[in-house]
Amino acid sequence: MKLAVSGKGGVGKTTLAASLAGALARRGYATLAIDADPAPNLGPALGLEPTAVDAIVPIGEDEELVAAKTATGYAGVYNLSFPVDDLVRSRAVPTPAGPDLIVMGTVRAAGGGCTCPSAAVVRALLRRLVVGERQAVVLDLEAGLEHLGRGTAAGVDLLLVLVDGSAAACRVAGRIMSLAKELGIPRIALVGSRVDPEGGEVAANACARRLGIPLVALLLEDPAIALAGREGKAVPADGPTATRVEALLDRILQEAEA
Ligand SMILES: Nc1ncnc2c1ncn2[C@@H]1O[C@H](COP(=O)(O)OP(=O)(O)O)[C@@H](O)[C@H]1O
Ligand SMILES: [Mg+2]
Predict the structure, then answer these.
(1) Which end of the chain has the least Cβ crowding within 10 Å, N or C?
(2) CA-to-CA distance for 140 and 6, rounded, in angstroms?
(3) What is the CATH classification number for the domain harbouring 156?
């Protein structure tokens, strides 16, 4: 199971990615949480302390590792076929919430194209990571469409697109959806996140109808989640939102088996 979470900035992607990854780990899935946002903040949401977060060297910024993977001995010629499973073993950091965490980091594209070696390593990891039985990968994407544009969401089984009931978030969701279809992502679903109980639900449903994709969960504005965010603490594993995330996960797993 390879899940990705996308949507407009601030809509709750990192929070939901951490929450889903934690829930999968608690159910016994060997879970890898991948922070693919160039401004990474999935670590704290999974309960890592600031010192542990600061100690992580993102894969795309580890020049030695990138060179070891891609160097051919010829300037400007990169090896693009290399194993990625060892990367997971050597670079994933265990977190208090349960999942292992990998941070991709900022990837600078050389020239206009994206043939730079660090991008190649990050892309290869996302695309070629083989996910077996009782294993899960949860990808926290950056706001908007960058990663989809670069093709890093290819290979994802299910893309969750978050909307908060605002017109802007629905517009971004529509653009993400078109790109995801082009990329051939087999399943796309909408999740209401940080939804205002007053009227937000109606707006999220209207967005789902307009885009023609199902709204599979509705996560309301939750003071306990907001507090954890303010304090840089782990996303709570219980409470009303966690219960809704568990229900969402039930649905995702059932549909994956069907
Ligand atoms: N359901 C929610 N209720 C209240 N606050 C939330 C909720 N989900 C996320 N937040 C808060 O909103 C802010 C942005 O969330 P985040 O997950 O970082 O969004 P994104 O990754 O989409 O930018 C954080 O401070 C987070 O704690
Ligand atoms: Mg985020």
Answers:
(1) C
(2) 7
(3) 3.40.50.300
